[in-house]
Amino acid sequence: MTAPSARITAVDTFDVRFPTSRELDGSDAMNPDPDYSAAYLVLRTDAGDGLEGHGFSFTIGRGNDVQVAAIAALRPHLVGRSVDELCADPGSLSRDLVGDSQLRWLGPEKGVMHMAIGAVVNAVWDLAAKRAGQPLWRLLAHADPEWLVSQVDFRYIADALTPEEALALLRAGRAGLAEREAALLERGYPGYTTSPGWLGYSDEKLTRLAKQAVADGFTQIKLKVGADLDDDVRRLRTARAAVGDGVRIAIDANQRWNVDEAIAWTNALAAFEPYWVEEPTSPDDVLGHATIREAIAPVKVATGEHVQNRIVFKQLLQAGALDVLQIDAARVGGVNENLAILLLAAKFGVPVCPHAGGVGLCELVQHLSMFDFLALSGTTENRVIEYVDHLHEHFDAPVVVREGHYRAPLTPGFSATMHPSSIAEYRYPDGAFWVADLAGQSS
């Protein structure tokens, strides 16, 4: 008698928070006191192989409990599902989760519920890659183009990208894959660092970290701006003096400005040759971004870390509203929706430079950029992955950056697995760190 197929038996959730606000790590004009946090989940099965699917949504502290509750609300769609069928077709789960009519009302396809869907879908891809014995970038890069197209939801974007066009892009992208994979394994994928540029850092710390970034091989750094123009002028001058003329400096306003403010402020900083201005206004303001882009050239406009779905990305591209598209591995509906966004960017010829601040975002998004290089865009020209040197030690397979390049991860999966000891220590509010911290505050 044939044994029954393995099933998903549990979806365990955890509220994990790190006290990064104590050192102002991650601080910017809109978010002065972030505590980098993960609404974390583990998919468990009865397959007997010891493999689990790990995923998470990234938040910055308060509200992480709401995000955990949203993930838990998706549990009925997972428990009892066939592991083989799930891993063979993650898109089927994506469609079911997005299509839950009562939960969809809370979006649709945006906000807390959509981020929860992304966390769950990413956990399935993590499990699928582990079962295949491959890092996710390699599983995606070598996947059949027709199958990849089947994983994409073309609803609402078919006026800009048809399945036939997506298939043609993926088929063309396979040419030279083996040579590019050899180059990736030898050199890695270029990165840039935001570590010198947090708004709460002193000029001394900015200078020290900027010089260190250049010594470490980075050819681009990023500074947070938008709180005070005089401070920004001083900090840009300080940074330019530290890195010299041959290193790009991007600036990031984190949605701080109205459209006219974004234009005036960016032009006031133009003497320091910023490469791009990131999130100059609301991520939902497509036409505002287009207006800003026209007014501040040759400074480029970059956005995407808070863009809520493929439909808004479609409009940004159609409107000519951005020069640099910034995917986020945990903001939209997981790998499946990011495939759609990467395909849209390829169709419009816009470079993708992912957002990767936070906890675990570097670990995840490297896989998507490496897939894009190997099997879609075929280039790393004017493409870089953000790197922030925070909290990598909490992951089983942390990112490795050498000479300013992300080394291709070789551990099977999506690099999402967090150490159980880290979860036990930083689970909120009953983890060891937070119990001691709250006791110290009350004493």
From TrEMBL:
EC no.? Answer: 4.2.1.68
| UniProt xrefs under PROSITE patterns | MR_MLE_2 (PS00909)
Q: Which residues form the Mandelate racemase/muconate lactonizing enzyme C-terminal domain?
A: 203-299
Q: Which UniProt keywords apply?
A: Lyase, Magnesium, Metal-binding
What's the catalysed reaction?
L-fuconate = 2-dehydro-3-deoxy-L-fuconate + H2O
Q: What class of enzyme is it?
A: lyase
Named cofactor requirement(s): Mg(2+)
| PANTHER family recorded | ENOLASE SUPERFAMILY, MANDELATE RACEMASE (PTHR13794), MITOCHONDRIAL ENOLASE SUPERFAMILY MEMBER 1 (PTHR13794:SF58)
What's the protein called, per UniProt?
L-fuconate dehydratase
Supply the source organism for this entry: Streptomyces vulcanius
Highest classification ranks of the organism: Bacteria, Bacillati, Actinomycetota, Actinomycetes, Kitasatosporales
